[in-house]
Design goal:
By secondary structure, the chain is an all-alpha fold. α2 runs antiparallel to α3. It contains three helices and no strands.
Length: about 90
């Protein structure tokens, strides 16, 4: 019983600093500013919207299932091409 109490006390003492540490990322001035990051995200969203509009137009113009499949394959290939390559 006494050993269990000592072990529990020691574990609490060593775990307290871990909970007290502030793990929140701090902005230190390195990297892009908030405005630049926001601008980059909005640009990426606009590009995705434009790509989706093009795919929608392609599907709307389709005359049969093969045309729809061709649209889907074309735009899927473009998305896969733009993804970063795994290392």
């Amino acid at each position: 019983m006494k050993t269990a109490m000592i072990a529990m006390t020691v574990s609490i003492l060593f775990s307290a600093p871990a909970f007290a540490a502030d793990n929140a990322p701090q902005f230190n001035g390195a990297g892009p500013s908030f405005e630049q990051r926001k601008s980059d995200i909005l640009k990426h969203i606009d590009e995705r919207i434009a790509r989706n509009q093009e795919e929608k137009s392609c599907v709307q113009a389709a005359k049969n299932h093969d045309d729809i499949k061709a649209c889907r394959d074309k735009f899927k290939a473009e998305v896969l091409q733009q993804r970063p390559k795994p290392r």
